[in-house]
Each structure stands twice: as structure tokens, then as C-alpha cells.
Design brief:
The complex is a heterotrimer of chains A (about 350), B (about 280) and C (about 600). With about 350 residues, chain A is mostly helical. Chain A is about 75% helix and about 0% strand. Chain B is mainly alpha-helical. Classes of the chains: A mainly alpha (about 350), B mainly alpha (about 280), C alpha/beta (about 600).
Chain lengths: ~350, ~280, ~600
């Protein structure tokens, strides 16, 4: 109906010369380097924020010692010494940063042990938890989204929608506790409420105890992903080129797979990445709830004890995961969008 | 600007999600506000042995206080802090996002880069970071921390929406007429962002409640003895096997609250989509 | 002028390729019809034009031929006979089989109709692959041959491209090639040249014509553009509000239109060779469910009588093969095309220059897009800026209006130099030069009421306040043929034409001396365009307002402007009085442009 002629800057669109190609690998490498550079810059700024948020606010010694502050000036002095509080803030920051980059994450104030020793295993545990949750979540969310999109408008779709909507906003600890109440204690006694793992062995060696934490995480993030993927699918299914494909006489299955799915992937990747990045923060509460031996639970303990070096190191790790996941999502999005791909190589 | 006319009220009631969401939220809010006055016992009153069926039908908690009373009394602080934090986050985020979108150029670039840094934090992390060096958090600290963690996310959304608007012809038209910049933002851009901003506010409120209660659950409270839903969950965890209500009651209330606010936020989005037929 | 004579040697083989009978498409669940009583016959090798403005239902008819209806509507009854099979009574598997092979579709918006993530080489052969037609090499060859047929390169490099790497015209030709590849018998084209340059449009139409004639394909060309139809169609069907109101051979329809709506449409169309006093049709097109009782056009018809509201007319015979749905066709006399003719402006008329552009160079960032442009505008005069997309016409107009700041040179207004950018200009200058945008759906704040929108300039420029301002608003709205009833409404209740009138009213509220109109009718239906032009002409004569009118439609220029500047690639190609430039063009580019512009005369 509406005939709108768009004015473009002269000679920008009507050229029909073939797209120029620099060496594609060179262009890609350049672009990747830029993205990485930005990520590193972000992480550096994050480190500044982490350091100054912990070291500059309040009085860490008072926080650590609590009521003992008044009664033991000697401990105050020891701590002051330990924390190098006499040095100017900026110098301390660079000391700390230097340590981070060389692998020296500092010494835990509560345990007197090097931080890296204490968290080594825990990082692995958390990684397992996150990966397992992600691996379970993605097919579940996509599956529900596709079922819902297929049954668009019918009863099934509406019911699914309401359930997803309800779940999507509920805090993760609420989900976790209800699951515990349901499956662990009051109603059924199927799964353990607390992660049981003997020292040294990973919790995955006792898979039963991982079920609830994983289930909690999945239920916390899958609904949002499913909703976004569903609406993306619907948008694509309503698009002009899908309509044309149908008018060309292409069978529905092929339309779904070839035409619809590929175009729905990019927004889906972005929302999955968003939620996985959220996991970096969400594990804090979930691990604490289930006493899962990961960095989240560790963070809570460290914060409670005002164990500043631990807090700083763990925060950096979590932030790094967050930035890393977003970076991967960016790259994947570009890879799947031909328009952006060709823009890079030309 | 849309006014509360009979037509708009009718539109709201016809929109099931929004309506149901509003009702649920209103009920919980009313409960939280009025709760302490209708509670059968005092907040810290010991009515019996811990985790027994003394007191009202929900039993007692880890100290022997009445669970029902504490549930009724434990919503106020969460409510106030969540609402204030949401407000702070929204105002801050909108300011940053809209101004960045309008001014454009290098200002936009710089602001957004800084915003990206702020976004590199999982929301709860900022609060934990600060709490690690503070002994007893004040309530306004939590408001600030939670609000500050919302602001970059709101800013990103606001900027995205505003970007789509500032290049529109009607904004250009206002500029051609010579309207002052402030007026352009306030009268042309912002009113057209009503729907997505309201929906975002609902979403942020949902997350605020989750975070504030979550912080309570982790044990960081502003007033250890007072009734607080999040804190209650933490306090009564031991009793889960014996008398679960100390934990389950606040958990369910929090859950219902967030379902309500989320339904509202989604309902607003739906309403906007329907009404936007231009 | 691109007119292709229908090929005389097209024998009718085995009767019509496609015949539609009693087709009715209705809205799901509401029992309201979108289109009804549609009857059409398509012969092989013939092009039938299906013409209608927005809301007429023409696209619905087009897709119904493929057994397809949009979400929210369904095909209620009727027959679409392809040979001896009824498309509408087949199972969906069989329908799908038919699609692409027997009956193909070329969509309106080329860019969105091709899958952005699949290379065009693959999309071309997709259907053949699925139907297992030929071997891999054969399909490849056919694809290349198809591309060559539409005048596109067919080397490997081209086949590897993605849709976004092609220009609009190229994409549309790929869509054409894609449709013709399986050699269908019937082709439905849905406004396939919308948004394309006039030159590209000419190419695409030529290609289509050739393919249809050579492969004996029956084509249904759905469009709103009567000028295009005048050049390519053998027979024409005019639709209004879901009905076919007139059907007949091309010459008959254009020379002796029977139905009042057709006549009104033809009155609204500008001609290349002659200036006309364009006019519109009062009222607006009714959507499904809002159509009047009786004859659907009677509430807007100049010839309506009481009987027209009683019952819907049948299709009456006007002449052999020519029918019209009106009970008064014998009574309303012959239509005379000359009734609307008016005079070209006298090139030697004295001119009182009010705005002068000198040595204008415009930049986007570092790129120069307009080079060394000079022209001027006199009081009470309309100057047209004409060109294809990329010519710089909109850019120049934006500079004059103060919307673009990156330029050098001088724009003089009443002897004073204008500052770049509206903010730097004085209140007085800003007030006296007003800008009207192309897209009425985007140029008005959706959150403000009409009253607020039109009042704003008055407040800003201190012309009037409060009660007095409201009175003036009502007055202005009346002048643009909108009643005071719209005062408290928001724009979403108005049609495109009505919104554009509000935009004009807003511009007038500032009491300007110059109106810069940036393609203000390009997004509107032809009859609406006619009404707007009529309005503008009236304003120009009564208030002495000058206009800088940007457009790509040369025929429109003839009817509205006194002088014209032809632009290409950011440079002024030719300029002068309209009569001279259009009757005696001196530059080749102008000649080409005139030759490619579809026109009725």
C-alpha cells in the first residue's frame, strides 16, 4: 500500500559491483582482535570497580573483626599490616592487579591460605554445575518454545505461556526451596537437600545430589529463554519470506527448518547468552542454598567474613565469565548473520 | 498522555494478565502494609517453643515467634526498599539512556562503554561487594546498591527505545520548529516510551523483590531481629523437616508477589502492542 | 514511453488459463467479507491489471488465486479453476503441489521476500530441487538461463550473493526469474515495482511482459498505479471496497470509463503531456465491516441518488467485454478527459524571487552528495525538485528546511542568508519556512492530540494562545477539509491522507511564506494525492505561499509546478519552466526520464 521511496546518500545503493573482498581471515582477525580488546578493557574497568568498592568503602578491619575491634588492638595492627593499609589506595590497586595477572590471587584472610589453592576445585565444581545446567536448559527451552509456537493460539500454547510467565519472575531461591520442600523433605523424599560430597571428590560423582541445584537453575532461566525463542519463531513464521516460501509451494517442514529456524537463531543465541551470563550471578544464591561447593557459596562466605582478597578474586572470576559468555554470543551472532558477515569482509 | 477514562479502565480489565497481575500485587502489597496491624501477636513475641504448633496455624519459628505474625510484618521493609530501588534504577537509567540517545556522537559512545562496564556485573555482585566491607548495612544502602545495579540495564533499554524515536520525523519536525532540546525530550520522546518503560519498571520491580529478599536470605539484613521475609527463610531453614511453614510461608509470599508483578509487566507489554495500531 | 503492444499472435489454447468465479474471502470469526463476488478470466499470454487503492482487497484476490489467505481471513467460497481443477477445493497437499509449478507469485517487497540467510543461487533452484525436477546440472543451467532472461549476470559470483548484496531492482528481477523457472501457467504479481526507480521499474516491466508473451503465461498484475497498467495490461479490472466495480479492455476503460469511481480515479491522475487540475474523492475508503449499504461507493459518489443506497448493483454491460457495477451508467453521460485540463504556467510570467540557493554543496560526513546546485523560488510559485533515489532532492530540501546542517554555499531568504540548521536560524526565519515530511505515519507525535499538534507552532511563534489558538486550529482544519471532530483525537484514528492534511495544517499554523514538501504524496493513494494537490493549489493561490515540491513523479510535476529542477547523482541536470523542460527537453537524462515514466496519455 504505502509507496515510500527512501532517499539514500547518493551512489550508496544502486551500485551493482561485486562485493570487494580483502583477505577474509585478515578481516576476521582484525574484528576479533577489536572485540577482544574491548572485552579486556571492560574487565580492566571492572577490576577497578571491584577493588575500589571493596577496599575503599567502610572500614574493612572493623568489618572483619566486628566486635573484637575494640578489644584487640594487636590484631588490628596485624591486619593493617597484612592489608597494607598504609599504602595509598592506587598503589595497592596496582599491586593487586599485578598479582591477578601473574596468578597470585592473594591470601585469604580467614584461612591464611593462598586464594588460588582454595578456589581451584571450586571453580571446577561451579563450571560443572553451570555447564550441566546449560546443557539441560537449552533443549528444554527450545523444545517448549517450538511446541508452543506450533500450537499457536490454541489451549496448549496459552497454558504454557501462563506457566512460563509465572515462573519467569520468581526468584531462584524460591524455586529452589519449593523444590526442596517438594522433592526432599515434606512431600517426597527423593533427592538430598544438601549437596553431599566427601572432600576431594567432585559433587558430580554423587549425581543425585546435583539434581536439585541443576533443576533449580534450569527452572530459573528456561522460562525466559523459551518465551523469547517462541516470540522470535512466531515473528519469523509471520515474515514475508516465509510467506513467499509457502506460496512457492515449499512443504511446511522444509519451511520450518530451512527458512524459519536459521533466521530465528540469532536472537535466540543472544537471549541464551544473556541468561547464561545471568547464571554467573545466579549460582551465588543457588550454591548457598544447596551448600554446593562452588565459587558462589564461597563468595557468600567470604563476604560474610569480610575476606576481602577472596571476595575480590571471586568477583573477578564471575565477572570474567560474564564478559566471556557475552563475547562468545556476539561472535556467534555475527557468524549467523550473513549481512554482518559480509560487512566484515568487505 | 493516556488518561484514566472509562475506556482505559475497560481495556485494562479486558487484559487478563494485567488485571490478574494487578490484583495479586495489590493483595500482597496490602498485606505487607496492613499486616503488622492485623497480626495476632507481636513481631518478637515468643509464643511457644521453636518449630511447634503453638501460636496461630502456621506455628512458630526458630525462636518460638509466631510465624503468621512475622509473615504479616515482614513485608514492609522489602516492599519499601524494592519500590525505592526500582524507582532509583528507572530514573537513573532513563536519564542516562535517553540523554545518550538524544545527544548521540561521542557522548553516546563513552556513556555506553561505561554502561557496558557496569553491565559486566551480575546484579547481586555489586551488593555483595559493598556488603563485604560494611558491617551492618543501612536500608538506604541496599536501596542504592540494588538501584545502581538496575540503572545500567534500564539505560540500555531506554537508549534502545529512544534511538528508534530520536530519528523519527516527528522529532525532526519539532527540532525544525526550533523547540528547546529539553522540551523535545520531555514532550516528544519520553511520552512515546511510556509502554516499554512501564513494562520495564514492572520487570525491575520483580527483580528488585527477588534481590532484596535474596540478600535477606543470604543473611544480610538491615535489622537482624526484625521480621523480614528473606531473612526468615534463612533463619528457619533448620526447621524445614520439622515445621516447614517458617520457611515455606515467606517463600510462597515472595513467589506470589513476583508472579504478580511479572504478570503486570507482561500485561502492560501486551496492552501496548494491542493499542499501538498506527 | 514504455508501451508494449500486446502480441497479436497469441492463440488461445484450450480456453482460459485461470478463471475465478464467485470468490469470497471473509474475516475469520466475524462474517464480514474482505472481498466478494469476484469474477475474472485470465487467458494465456494475457496481462490483466487488477487496480485498486489501499483497502480495495486487490492483494487478497491475488493471493486467493493460490489458495492462500492472510492470517485472520479465510476463503469462504468460490472457484478458482486452473484448467479443469478447482484450486479452492483441493486438499492442501495438492494446492502446495500446484503452487510454484502451475501458478506462481511475485511479491511486493523484494527485499523482505527473499530469505536473508540463503544465497540467491540456492533460493532460485529450491523449488526445482524439492520437486525433483531435472538433475543438479540441469537445474543449475536453467537457473543461469533464467537470470540471463531477466538481464542479470549469471556467473558463479552472482549466484553466491546474499539478497542484501543486490539492489532493489536486481532483487525483484531475481524474484521474477525464480517465479518463471518452473514454467508456471499463471503468474500473480503483487505491485512488484513499488519503491523502485522509474528506470528500473521500466526494465522490470519490460522483462515481465516479454516473459509472459514468450512463455504464454497468464498474468494478473495487482497494483494501485493506473499509469503502469495503461502501459502493460490487455484488460483491466478496477476494485473498490472488496468488489470489482469495472472490468474491460484497456482502451475502453481509459477512453470511456463507465463507473464513477474509475472516472474519479482518472481525474486524479496527472499526465505527462498536459497540466491538469487534479482532484480527489471526498471521504475515505471504508475497511471491511464499515462499508455502506447498497452501492459501496455511493457515499463518496458525485452521481449518487437515493436508489443507490438500496441495493448493491450487479455488473451491467457497457459494451461487449466491458462491464461496470453501477445502476446509472446510462444516465451519467460520457467522461471527458479534457474536463480536468488546466494551463501550464506561462514561462515568461514575472517572478518575484523569495528564496535563492547558490553554489550548494552538501555532505554526509565526509562524503559529498550534492554538487554545486543553484536555483530559486518566487512568491506564489511552486518549484519541483525531481530525481530518482540518490539524486539529492530530499537532501537539498532538508538543507533548505534547516534539518541538515552539513553544507556550504548560500541559501538566501528575502535577501538574507539563512543559517545552517534550524536551531541557528532566527525565529522569524524558522516560522516562515515550514517543512512537510513524506511519511504521514511518522511525522506526527502519536501521543499528542490533533489540536495539540496544530496549536504548537502558534504558541512557539507567539501567533496565538489559548482560546484564540483553538479557534484558529478549527479554522485551519476546515481549510484542509477536516472537521473539528478530529480535535481531540490522536493520529492513530486517522488515515494516511488525513494525517498528511494535519501535517499541512500544522505547517500553515505558523503562517509561512515557503512550504517545503518532501514527497508528501508518495505514500498516499492516487485519489488522496489528488485531493492534497487540489488543496495545495488552493493555498498557493489564496495565500500566495511558495512551494518547494520534491517528487520522483514527473507527471505530478506537470500539474503542480511552474518550474522544475531535474537532479541526478547530486547534480543539477536541467532546469527551467515546466512547459519547456517537459515538452522540449535538452539533456539526454531528462529525455530518458520522460521516456521511462509511465503515463496514461
Amino acid at each position: 500500500m504505502a509507496q515510500v521511496t527512501t532517499e539514500q546518500p547518493a551512489a550508496a545503493t544502486t551500485t551493482t559491483e561485486p562485493p570487494r573482498r580483502r583477505s577474509p581471515w585478515g578481516a576476521w582477525a582484525f574484528w576479533l582482535a577489536r572485540r577482544l580488546g574491548l572485552a579486556i578493557l571492560t574487565l580492566w574497568l571492572v577490576s577497578v570497580l571491584v577493588f575500589f568498592a571493596t577496599a575503599a568503602l567502610g572500614d574493612p578491619i572493623r568489618a572483619i573483626l566486628g566486635k573484637d575491634y575494640e578489644s584487640s588492638p594487636s590484631r588490628v595492627a596485624t591486619l593493617e599490616d597484612q592489608l597494607n593499609l598504609d599504602q595509598p589506595l592506587v598503589e595497592r590497586y596496582f599491586d593487586w592487579l599485578g598479582g591477578l595477572l601473574t596468578g597470585d590471587l592473594g591470601t585469604s584472610l580467614s584461612n591464611r591460605l593462598p586464594v588460588s589453592e582454595l578456589i581451584g576445585d571450586r571453580v571446577v565444581n561451579t563450571a560443572v554445575l553451570v555447564i550441566v545446567s546449560a546443557v539441560v536448559m537449552i533443549p528444554v527451552a527450545f523444545g517448549i518454545a517450538m511446541i508452543s509456537a506450533n500450537a499457536r493460539g490454541k489451549r496448549l500454547d496459552q497454558v504454557i505461556q501462563v506457566i512460563l510467565l509465572g515462573l519467569a519472575g520468581v526468584p531462584e531461591f524460591v524455586i529452589g526451596i519449593l523444590l526442596v520442600a517438594l522433592l526432599s523433605t515434606t512431600v517426597f523424599h527423593v533427592f538430598p537437600a544438601v549437596t553431599i560430597s566427601a572432600g576431594g571428590e567432585g559433587p558430580w560423582q554423587n549425581p543425585g545430589s546435583m539434581v536439585l541445584p541443576v533443576l533449580t537453575l534450569v527452572l530459573a532461566i528456561a522460562p525466559y529463554v523459551a518465551r523469547i525463542v517462541r516470540s522470535t519463531l512466531l515473528e519469523v513464521l509471520d515474515s514475508d519470506y516465509v510467506e513467499l516460501a509457502r506460496l512457492k509451494g515449499i512443504p511446511e517442514g522444509v519451511v520450518m527448518r530451512k527458512h524459519a529456524l536459521l533466521n530465528a537463531i540469532v536472537p535466540s543465541i543472544q537471549v541464551v547468552a544473556l541468561q547464561l551470563a545471568w547464571l554467573a550471578g545466579g549460582i551465588v544464591i543457588v550454591e548457598y542454598l544447596f551448600s554446593y561447593p562452588g565459587i558462589g557459596a564461597s563468595l557468600v562466605d567470604s563476604v560474610r567474613n569480610s575476606d576481602i582478597p577472596m571476595v575480590q578474586a571471586l568477583s573477578m572470576i564471575i565477572a570474567a565469565i560474564y564478559v566471556g559468555v557475552n563475547l562468545i554470543a556476539d561472535v556467534l551472532s555475527i557468524l549467523f548473520t550473513p549481512r554482518a558477515r559480509t560487512a566484515i569482509t568487505s | 498522555m493516556s488518561v484514566l477514562t472509562t475506556t482505559s479502565v475497560r481495556r485494562v480489565t479486558r487484559q487478563k494478565r494485567l488485571f490478574v497481575g494487578m490484583i495479586i500485587t495489590a493483595v500482597v502489597v496490602a498485606l505487607a502494609i496492613v499486616g503488622p496491624w492485623i497480626a495476632p501477636y507481636g513481631e518478637n513475641e515468643i509464643v511457644g517453643k521453636p518449630f511447634t504448633h503453638s501460636g496461630s496455624f502456621l506455628g512458630t519459628d526458630y525462636l518460638g515467634q509466631d510465624v503468621l505474625t512475622r509473615v504479616l510484618a515482614g513485608g514492609r521493609s522489602i516492599l519499601v526498599i524494592s519500590v525505592l530501588a526500582t524507582l532509583l534504577g528507572m530514573v537513573g537509567g532513563i536519564l542516562i539512556g535517553v540523554v545518550a540517545a538524544y545527544v548521540g556522537g561521542w557522548f553516546d559512545e563513552v556513556v555506553m562503554r561505561l554502561n557496558d562496564v557496569a553491565l559486566a556485573f551480575p546484579q547481586i555482585l555489586l551488593a555483595l561487594l559493598v556488603l563485604s566491607s560494611v558491617e551492618q548495612p543501612k536500608w538506604w544502602m541496599i536501596v542504592l546498591l540494588v538501584g545502581a545495579s538496575h540503572a545500567p540495564r534500564v539505560a540500555r533499554l531506554a537508549r534502545g527505545v529512544a534511538l528508534g524515536l530520536v530519528s523519527r520525523d516527528f522529532v525532526a519536525s519539532a527540532e525544525a520548529l526550533g523547540e528547546s532540546r529539553i522540551r523535545v525530550v520531555i514532550a516528544e520522546v519520553l511520552p512515546n516510551m511510556n509502554a516499554p518503560l512501564l513494562a520495564e519498571a514492572g520487570l525491575r520491580l520483580t527483580y528488585s523483590i527477588g534481590m532484596v529478599a535474596g540478600l535477606g536470605f543470604l543473611g544480610f539484613s538491615t535489622d537482624p531481629g526484625a521480621a523480614d521475609w528473606g531473612l526468615m527463610i534463612n533463619e528457619n531453614r533448620l526447621g524445614l523437616l520439622v515445621l516447614p511453614w517458617g520457611v515455606l510461608a515467606p517463600v510462597i509470599v515472595i513467589g506470589v508477589f513476583t508472579i504478580g508483578t511479572n504478570l503486570m509487566a507482561d500485561g502492560i507489554t501486551q496492552l501496548a502492542e494491542k493499542g499501538d495500531d498506527s | 514511453m514504455t508501451s508494449v503492444a500486446p502480441d497479436e499472435t497469441t492463440p488461445a489454447t484450450n480456453g482460459p488459463a485461470c478463471s475465478v468465479d464467485g470468490l469470497r474471502v471473509a474475516l475469520t470469526g466475524r462474517g464480514i467479507d474482505v472481498v466478494d463476488e469476484i469474477q475474472l478470466v485470465l487467458e494465456p499470454g494475457e496481462v490483466v491489471g487488477l487496480v485498486g487503492e489501499s483497502g480495495s482487497g486487490k492483494t487478497t484476490v491475488g493471493t486467493a488465486l493460490l489458495g492462500y489467505s492472510r492470517l485472520g481471513a479465510f476463503i469462504e467460497r468460490g472457484h478458482v479453476m486452473l484448467g479443469d481443477r478447482d484450486v479452492l477445493s483441493l486438499g492442501w497437499k495438492d494446492v502446495r503441489q500446484l503452487r510454484g509449478e502451475e501458478i506462481a507469485y511475485v511479491p511486493q517487497d523484494p527485499a523482505s521476500a527473499l530469505n536473508p540467510t540463503i544465497r540467491i543461487g540456492r533460493q532460485l533452484v529450491e523449488l526445482l530441487e524439492l520437486r525433483d525436477i531435472g538433475t543438479g546440472t540441469e537445474r543449475d543451467e536453467r537457473a543461469r538461463a533464467g537470470l540471463a532472461e531477466v538481464g542479470l549476470p549469471n556467473d558463479d559470483e552472482f549466484l553466491q550473493r546474499y539478497p542484501h548484496q543486490l539492489s532493489g531492482g536486481q532483487v525483484q528481477r531475481v524474484a521474477l526469474a525464480m517465479a518463471f523457472l518452473p514454467r508456471p501457467k499463471v503468474l500473480v504479481l503483487d505491485e512488484p515495482t513499488t519503491g523502485l526507480d522509474v528506470t528500473t521499474q521500466g526494465m522490470v516491466l519490460d522483462t515481465m511482459n516479454q516473459l509472459c508473451r514468450s512463455h504464454q503465461v497468464a498474468a494478473l498484475y495487482v497494483t494501485h498505479d493506473l499509469a503502469v497498467i495503461a502501459n502493460i495490461a490487455d484488460r483491466v479490472a478496477v476494485m473498490y471496497a472488496g468488489r470489482i466495480v469495472e472490468l474491460g479492455p484497456r482502451e475502453a476503460l481509459f477512453d470511456e470509463p463507465a463507473h464513477p469511481y474509475t472516472r474519479a480515479l482518472l481525474d486524479a491522475i496527472p499526465h505527462l503531456k498536459q497540466a491538469r487540475a487534479l482532484s480527489g474523492i471526498p471521504g475515505r475508503t471504508p475497511g471491511p465491516g464499515r462499508r455502506p449499504e447498497g452501492c459501496r461507493f455511493h457515499d463518496r459518489c458525485a452521481y449518487a441518488i437515493d436508489r443507490c443506497a438500496e441495493a448493491e448493483p450487479e455488473l451491467y454491460d457497457v459494451a461487449p467485454g466491458h462491464t461496470a457495477r453501477c445502476i446509472r451508467i446510462d444516465e451519467i453521460g460520457r467522461w471527458d478527459i479534457n474536463l480536468g485540463t488546466s494551463h501550464d504556467t506561462d514561462p515568461d510570467k514575472s517572478r518575484d524571487v523569495i528564496l535563492a540557493v547558490r553554489d550548494l554543496d552538501v555532505f554526509y560526513g565526509h562524503k559529498q552528495v550534492v554538487h554545486d546546485v543553484d536555483f530559486d523560488l518566487a512568491r506564489s510559485e511552486c518549484v519541483a525538485l525531481v530525481g530518482e533515489s540518490g539524486s539529492g532532492k530530499t537532501t537539498i530540501s532538508r538543507c533548505v528546511g534547516g534539518l541538515h546542517r552539513n553544507w556550504t554555499g548560500a541559501i538566501d531568504f528575502e535577501g538574507r542568508e539563512l543559517a545552517r540548521g534550524a536551531r541557528r536560524r532566527s525565529d522569524e526565519d524558522r516560522k516562515r519556512i515550514q517543512y512537510i515530511f513524506q511519511n504521514p505515519y511518522l511525522s506526527l507525535n502519536p501521543r499528542m492530540t490533533i489540536e495539540q499538534i496544530v496549536k504548537r507552532p502558534m504558541k512557539l511563534f507567539g501567533i496565538a494562545k489559548g482560546r484564540e489558538a483553538t479557534d484558529r486550529v478549527v479554522d485551519l482544519l476546515e481549510q484542509v477539509a477536516l472537521g473539528p471532530g478530529v480535535l481531540k483525537l490522536q493520529t492513530n484514528r486517522l488515515s494516511g491522507g488525513e494525517r498528511q492534511r494535519v501535517a499541512i495544517a500544522r505547517a500553515l499554523a505558523a503562517e509561512p511564506d515557503v512550504l517545503v514538501c518532501d514527497e508528501i504524496t508518495s505514500a498516499l493513494d492516487v485519489s488522496v494525492q489528488g485531493a492534497i494537490v487540489e488543496l495545495l493549489e488552493g493555498l498557493r493561490n489564496s495565500r500566495g505561499i511558495s512551494m518547494l515540491f520534491v517528487t520522483h513523479n514527473l507527471a505530478l510535476v506537470r500539474s503542480i509546478a511552474a518550474r522544475v529542477q531535474i537532479l541526478s547523482g547530486g547534480r543539477l541536470v536541467e532546469s527551467g519552466p515546466v512547459v519547456e523542460v517537459m515538452d522540449r527537453p535538452r539533456k539526454d537524462y531528462t529525455r530518458e526520464l520522460l521516456a521511462n515514466s509511465p503515463s496514461i496519455d
